[in-house]
Amino acid sequence: MTAIGAGGVSITSIKFSSKFQKQFKKIPPEIEKLVPEKLKDLLKNPFPSGLKFEKLKGCNKPDIYTIHVTGNYKISMEIEGDTAILRRIGNHNDIDRTP
After folding, report:
1. What tens digit of pLDDT does each residue of 54-92 get?
2. How many CA atoms does the CB half-sphere of 97 hold within 13 Å?
3. Domain residue spans in the chain?
4. Cis bond leading into 62, ω under 30°?
5. Which CATH architecture is the domain 13-97 placed in?
6. Is 33 exposed, middle or buried (0-12, 13-18, 19+ CB in 10 A)?
7. Is 89 exposed, middle or buried (0-12, 13-18, 19+ CB in 10 A)?
8. Separation of CA 77 from chain center
9. Tens digit of pLDDT for each residue in 33-50?
10. In whole angstroms, what is the distance from residue 1 CA to residue 92 CA?
11. Residues 96, 25: contact at Cβ < 8 Å?
12. Could you give the CA distance from residue 20 to residue 29 in angstroms, rounded to a whole number?
């Protein structure tokens, strides 16, 4: 991760895992419409208010991070260098159980 300020990260690109791509096709259309804007916000600033960017406790090797799309939908990701690799998208409970 690239340090910014007080321990922040910089994300300059996004990759999509095949699992994320499959799950994305199955999410409700109203959620699907929100994702591009949330990812644009992530590229601008990994800690924008509303995304709730956080590292999942107990997940390391690799470290797993999440952002909120809505109150009930989340995206999980790994960060390699300055690239976010999106792993999964789904409801809050599913992502927390199996990120």
Report:
1. 888 877 678 899 999 998 999 999 999 889 999 999 999
2. 5
3. 13-97
4. yes
5. 2-Layer Sandwich (3.30)
6. exposed
7. buried
8. 5
9. 999 999 998 888 767 666
10. 25
11. no
12. 15
